[in-house]
Design goal:
By secondary structure, the chain is α/β, with parallel strands linked by helices. The chain has three domains: 51-382, Na+/H+ antiporter like fold, CATH 1.20.1530; 399-572, Rossmann fold (3-Layer(aba) Sandwich); 580-656, Alpha-Beta Plaits, CATH 3.30.70. Strands 3-2-1-4-5-6 form a six-stranded parallel sheet, with helices on both faces. The protein has a five-stranded antiparallel sheet with strand order 7-8-11-9-10, covered by helices on one side. The N and C termini lie far apart (79 Å). The relative contact order is 0.08.
């Protein structure tokens, strides 16, 4: 038996290596590769592994380990910090999805209890897939990323009550004793998790830590996880539920970070084992037997989940665009749904054939997740473009309480995270007028009460920028984590106010050039600034004199931002030099081929007569000519430094561009 089990695992992981590499090259997440590996190796395809019972055992072991690690990562304190997203957003999404799916199931003639169980399966989304995609794409800290993560956390917590309710749904009558037993079990599970997290688990770890043995510490983690799973199984609940509760109990102890770091090396193997096992249970013949049914089911799941999640998010007051993106990212079926479906088969809520159809549809929705996330922005832009702004801006206590305040020569801050808060505080101390735009309705309400001039809305919408008086603003700072949203805001702001000085905070250097293409004046990449701070601290550790450290930092920063400014010259034809002199500005422009100025001399007065701006300096190649004489003939690629009002410089810009 040991030899056969070892051989099966070796076959699975060997095939997974090839499949996952192939799918990653096709831009699919590794989890899809694991599912396909299971399908190929399972008893219904290539039949490398034929023992179905052993397959089911492997799936159960895989999900026990997966839920254990997810439980460790969750934190009840973190849940309280974002409780409005978790409780209201997640609660509405799960409850309304269950009700909607149950109504659809009942309409097609299924019993009510079975239809409600279908709702359980559809309501949950994939934490493993979505977390990886959001983190890899840098969207985890974006507004829609935070919204999706909050809803996912609630869904993960829902596995406890949903699994407890499955035996009740499987009952043939409404026996009061059955309800009381399930309720008592639920209460016992909650109490055990609460007191275990506060008392028993910390005490056990404290005794183990005294031994200074890492091996004993790891054994304790495994003992607590598997022991809790075993105890819940004895109580008539599932092994997976016990593992999740054990992980949650460990997460609340002071040793949770060490426990997680010790078990992380095994996590990917746990996840791969679970998803491979799920894939092995699917019979590919079901795709040929019910192709229309499965395709219709996939489309229905995606549509229902997208509509309901969008509605749940908008109920919190967030703009429709963010709600749609979050909803599309959550449209797939989750890994916890596989756990529920296996429990449903055991109690008769799903027939083997229905289970196969569900597996096929679920795997299809998981496979479509990267595409949903990729096209979420265009879909959201298309939808909100069809609807009035009043329908899409987001509502609640925020929209009604905002008052229009006249602003002029002010700074617009987009995003009220750490960067936005620090900037707003400094501007307030310097008595510089400013206004903040943020998409978090709770932040807007909280900061508004403190006297901060903050507007609720999506800054990529023209109406929101108009509300912030973008036409009268001197500058804009975009300090949000969503790179795609930053580009949209910058492009719109540049269109609405061509003379606006736009500064964008971005995460990676690779995002700098696309922003300069849109006409952004300055880009501050966190990746570059972090490298400078690291350099500073390393030199301090070696007791390098402060003056020398500052010289090194100045040199590195000068070289780096010279490179960034060269991007600006290439794409926006502005070298980024700007200033203010008695209401006037200084800016630079490049003469483009076939522009109105190419081949014209200054004596013809084209610049002065058509814009009102004054020529200060002309740079041709390496030659710089200050105060050029009137007979100077402009040529392609000449860089001209102009002095004028914002309106004059805006008019001059058109003279330098291609006709």
């Amino acid at each position: 038996m040991t030899y056969e089990a070892l051989k099966d695992i070796e076959i699975l992981f060997g095939l997974a290596l090839v499949t996952v590499i192939l799918f990653q090259r096709l831009k699919f997440p590794s989890i899809i590769g694991f599912l396909v590996t299971g399908i190929l190796a399972g008893p219904h395809a290539l039949a490398f592994i034929q023992d179905t019972h052993q397959v089911e055992q492997m799936a159960e072991i895989g999900v026990v380990l997966l839920l254990f690690t997810i439980g460790i990562e969750l934190s009840l304190k973190e849940l309280m910090r974002i409780k409005h997203l978790v409780l209201w957003g997640g609660g509405l999404q799960v409850l309304v999805t269950i009700m909607a799916v149950a109504a659809v199931g009942a309409a097609f003639g299924f019993p009510v209890k079975q239809s409600v169980f279908f709702g359980f399966l559809v309501a949950l989304s994939s934490t493993a897939i979505l977390m990886k995609l959001l983190i890899d794409s840098g969207q985890a800290d974006s507004p829609h990323g935070k919204m999706a993560m909050g809803i996912l956390i609630f869904q993960d917590l829902c596995i406890v009550p949903l699994m407890l309710l499955i035996p009740l749904l499987a009952g043939n009558d409404d026996d009061l004793s059955r309800i009381l037993v399930i309720g008592a079990k639920a209460a016992a599970v909650i109490l055990a998790a609460h007191y275990g997290a506060r008392l028993l688990v910390p005490w056990i770890f404290k005794q183990v830590v005294k031994t200074r043995s890492r091996e004993l510490f790891i054994l304790t983690i495994i003992f607590i996880g598997l022991g809790t799973a075993w105890l819940t199984a004895l109580a008539g609940l599932s092994l997976a539920l016990g593992a999740f509760i054990a992980g949650l109990a460990i997460s609340e102890s002071e040793y949770s970070h060490q426990a997680l770091s010790d078990i992380i090396p095994f996590r990917e193997a746990f996840m791969s084992l679970f998803f491979i096992s799920v894939g092995m249970l699917l019979d590919p013949a079901i795709l040929a037997t019910y192709p229309v049914l499965i395709a219709s089911l996939v489309a229905t799941i995606l549509l229902i989940k997208t509509l309901i999640t969008t509605g749940a998010a908008m109920t919190l007051g967030v703009p429709m665009r963010i709600a749609i993106i979050a909803a599309l990212s959550l449209a797939q079926i989750g890994e916890f749904s596989f756990v529920l479906s296996q429990a449903g088969v055991k109690v008769g809520l799903l027939t083997p054939e229905m289970y196969q159809v569900f597996l096929a549809a679920s795997i299809a929705t998981m496979g479509l997740t990267p595409a949903c996330l990729k096209y979420a922005n265009p879909v959201a832009d298309f939808v909100i473009g069809l609807l009035p702004h009043e329908w899409t801006r987001g509502r609640g206590v925020l929209a009604k309480s905002e008052k229009t305040i006249p602003l002029n020569d002010h700074v617009i801050i987009v995003g009220y995270g750490v960067n936005g808060k620090n900037l707003a505080r400094a501007l307030k101390n310097l008595k510089i007028e400013h206004v903040v735009i943020d998409t978090n309705p709770f932040t807007v309400k909280k900061e508004g009460k403190k006297g901060q001039h903050i507007l609720f809305g999506d800054a990529s919408k023209p109406e929101v920028l108009e509300h912030a008086h973008v036409n009268n603003a001197r500058g804009m700072v975009i300090a949000i984590s969503d790179a795609a949203a930053s580009r949209r805001v910058a492009a719109l702001a540049r269109h609405q106010n061509p003379s606006l000085h736009i500064i964008v905070r971005t995460r990676y250097i690779l995002e700098v050039e696309p922003l300069y293409k849109l006409g952004v004046n300055e880009v501050i990449p966190e990746e570059f600034e972090t490298s400078i701070e690291i350099l500073s601290r390393v030199l301090r550790n070696y007791m390098v004199p402060l003056a020398e450290i500052e010289r090194c930092i100045t040199e590195v920063r000068s070289d780096g931002y010279d490179m960034f400014r060269s991007m600006s010259k290439r794409h926006s034809h502005a070298v980024g030099i700007s200033g203010y002199l008695s209401g006037a500005e200084i800016d630079t422009y490049m003469v483009q081929e076939n522009s109105q100025l190419a081949g014209k001399s200054l004596s013809e007065g084209t610049i002065r007569n058509k814009s009102g701006a004054t020529v200060l300096v002309i740079k041709r190649g390496e030659d710089v000519m200050p105060n050029p004489d009137p007979f100077w003939e402009l040529q392609r690629d000449d860089i001209v430094l102009l002095l004028g009002t914002p309106q004059q410089l805006n008019a001059a810009r058109n003279l330098f561009e291609k006709r």
